[in-house]
Every structure is written in structure tokens, then in C-alpha cells.
Write a structure and sequence with these properties.
Elements (H helix, E strand, L loop, with lengths): L2 H11 L7 H12 L17 H13 L5
Length: 67
């Protein structure tokens, strides 16, 4: 399932038929963290480290929401 489809499903669960920027921000860590590797070996495959979460949050915080 793509990130946008995940956001659409989340919006539907929240009672909307449209996605808002906060939906993507809410889901970003869960959906994107497995795609970020900050060091050559992870201790446990499939886990998210605090550093990876921090990188995702920093990226999201630097983006402006289009109006």
C-alpha cells in the first residue's frame, strides 16, 4: 500500500473522505522509517530507532503546508 493510500485509509477512519496534511504527518514515522538507514547495520531488523524518527520529524518540520 502506498503512503497516499495509507493516508486515505486513515482519513476515512477519522470520518473524512479527503486527506489533510496532518494525516501524513501522523503516519510519516510508521510508513517511512523502514526506508531510512542511518548506520551500516541495524541491531534488530524492522525496528525504528529514535534517530530515524528524529530525522523524519526534522524533515516534516521543515516543510511548509501548501495553502
Amino acid at each position: 500500500m502506498s503512503f497516499y493510500q495509507t493516508a486515505q485509509a486513515y482519513a476515512l477512519v477519522e470520518g473524512r473522505d479527503y486527506v489533510i496534511p496532518d494525516d501524513t504527518k501522523t503516519l510519516a514515522v510508521a510508513v517511512l522509517s523502514h526506508r531510512i538507514i542511518l548506520h551500516s547495520q541495524r541491531t534488530i531488523a524492522g525496528t525504528t530507532t529514535e534517530a530515524e524518527e528524529k530525522v523524519i520529524h526534522e524533515i516534516l518540520d521543515s516543510l511548509r503546508v501548501p495553502l
